[in-house]
Amino acid sequence: MFLQAVTSPISINSLMVLAAYVLLGGLYLIVVPLLLYSWMNRRWHCMGKFERLSAYGMVFLFFPGLILFAPFLNLRLNGQGEV
Question: Are 21 and 13 in contact (CB under 8 A)?
Fold first, then answer.
């Protein structure tokens, strides 16, 4: 009985659960952090206080995904140029 259960093909419910995990993980680790990087890069100097507070909250919430992309993205602000 146990051998038959182990060797049987994966049920459709298991595949649906696995697909849901992959989808949610991809959203959490890839899609939302990239959108958050883009949004913060465009709006950094013109954010209001509540928008900045929500940005900090989103950074806290999506920190694992942001830290994955941090070594590859260079979003430094232009600054003052040569000093």
Answer: no
Could you identify the residue written with the tokens 């600054």? 79
> What is d(CA 59, CA 39) in angstroms, rounded to the nearest whole number?
12
Does residue 62 lie within any of the structural domains? yes
CA–CA separation, 61 vs 66, rounded Å? 10
78: Cβ–Cβ under 8 A, 6 or more apart, which residues?
none
Left, alpha or beta for 81 (phi > 0: left; psi -120 to 50: alpha)? left
User: Would you place residue 81 in the very low, low, confident or very high pLDDT band (cuts 50, 70, 90)?
Assistant: low
pLDDT in tens, 9-21: 778 888 899 999 9
Domain of 42, in residue numbers: 32-73
Distance CA 29, CA 63 (A): 9
What pTM was estimated for this model as a whole?
A: 0.74
